[in-house]
Specification:
The chain contains 4 helices and 31 strands. It has 420 residues and is mainly β. The strands form 7 sheets. Strands 7, 8, 9, 10, 11 and 15 form a 6-stranded mixed sheet that branches. Strands 2, 3, 4, 5 and 6 form a 5-stranded antiparallel sheet that branches. It has a 5-stranded mixed sheet with strand order 12-13-14-16-21.
């Protein structure tokens, strides 16, 4: 899962690629692997759609909704109107971003957008920083002409500031990727505790630096690598689920530029859960702790094999909080969302769906939408299954009626409906 060139998707640890032209709508449609569903092309965006969010139509006082899409390559947020279940031609809602990777819509029609700045001098030295914008359509013409920075100075590097969600406390929760591949190699120095973390901020804040916020109220959890998205459980509103992309090559003196080296020490992509109600700051152990189910047969952590990591960060703690599940190696498990409507019947209600961008080297992995079924408590994973096969799915969301929308990095958005 090497990083795509920073100008493309800096927040996803993947191999370099040239974005292919999208296929004509209606050709080579993906097919759900579970019965009772059908897929059709919703819109062709071109570029590199990286995040999706449904929000109100600011032009309409009725209960209309629009699909907002970040284009990572174009530095824009696109908006798509629903015309009888098939999207209209995407239009630019807001621009002027530098590699946007997250979008979140508000009930008032405004948006929060996460993106990455070019390397600059800042409170943690010369490096890459992430930020979060608030975008507003003040004149109600359907275009977000006003924007300002909410939160800035989130330190990262190899991975960036990604998905967001509103918590039950009304705060804005933000994922921030880490700087390196394994903690020591392949990027700028990690910034403890904000590398590979989730932080929260008052959504009404303006131009606030991370360093000026109180640590205990700001830091939610840490000890992760590349965290791309997050979602609060519909069963337990304070339980936050976060997927993480594991390390590619945790060995001293090595980098992920040689993906076929048999001596690679890879670690799994994992699903974590952290409870914001216990007022603890969970530390999940990266970069000291790695997991590889194929190698060890369980989800027990072990020490990072790069001695420089252990020397700097210490050995993996014996009592480190464990992930709730593993997606396996190199799946690039990224955007996620819960299906909460009754339209998919009780069988699928409150299931978690995860977009796996996949790997472009070695054995094929990922390139799927995964269905994660939880137990009645919403805390224990009972099963994983492949729900949909796609080329490069990066994010997904649901509309109010329960239909799923999947952003594929090839430049297309697909819609998944339950057959009636």
């Amino acid at each position: 899962m090497r990083r795509i060139a920073a100008a493309l998707v800096a927040g996803v640890s993947l191999v370099a690629l040239t974005t292919a032209a999208p296929a004509a709508p209606g050709t080579d449609l993906p097919k759900p692997l579970e019965p009772g569903f059908y897929v059709h092309p919703y819109a062709v965006t071109g570029g590199a759609p990286s995040s999706l969010a449904f929000g109100p139509d600011t032009r309409d006082s009725e209960d209309g909704q629009r699909l907002y899409v970040t284009d990572n390559i174009g530095g824009t947020v696109l908006v798509i109107d629903d015309l009888g279940g098939v999207g209209s031609t995407p239009e630019v809602f807001a621009d002027g971003f530098d590699g946007p990777l997250g979008v979140l819509a508000v009930k008032d029609g405004s948006l929060y957008v996460a993106d990455a700045e070019s390397a600059r001098e800042g409170p943690y030295g010369f490096r890459s920083y992430g930020r979060v914008w608030h975008v507003i359509d003040k004149d109600k013409d359907g275009v977000g002409e006003t924007k300002y920075v909410v939160l800035k100075d989130l330190p990262n590097g190899r991975h960036n500031t990604n998905g967001m969600a509103f918590g039950p406390d009304g705060m804005l929760y933000v994922t921030n990727g880490n700087s390196t591949d394994d903690g020591a190699e392949g990027g700028e120095a990690e910034v403890v505790p904000f590398s590979g973390s989730v932080v929260r901020v008052d959504p009404k804040a303006k131009n606030v630096s991370l360093v000026d916020l109180p640590l205990k109220k700001t830091l939610v959890a840490t000890g992760w690598r590349n965290v791309y998205d997050l979602a609060f459980s519909p069963i337990d509103k304070t339980l936050l689920f976060v997927p993480m992309n594991g390390a590619d090559d945790a060995r001293k003196g090595s980098t992920a530029e040689n993906p076929v080296d048999p001596n690679l020490e890879d670690s799994d992509d994992l699903l974590f859960a952290t409870d914001i109600a216990d007022h603890r700051i969970d530390d999940f152990g990266f970069p000291s702790c790695l997991y590889n189910v194929a190698k060890r047969g369980d989800l027990k952590p072990y020490d990072n094999p790069n001695p420089d990591v252990i020397e700097k960060f210490g050995a993996c703690p014996k009592d480190v909080p464990r992930p709730v599940s593993s997606f396996g190696l190199h799946t690039s498990s990224d955007g996620l969302a819960f299906q909460t409507t009754k339209n998919w019947e009780d069988e699928y209600r409150n299931d978690l769906f995860v977009a796996e961008w996949g790997s472009l080297f070695g054995p094929p992995r990922g390139h799927d939408v995964i269905r994660v079924q939880l137990d009645d408590s919403g805390r224990k994973v009972e099963s994983h299954s492949v729900f949909l096969e796609l080329d490069l799915p990066l994010d997904l969301t649901f509309d109010k009626a329960g239909a799923m929308y999947v952003a594929d990095f090839s430049g297309q958005i697909f819609k998944v409906d339950r057959a009636i």
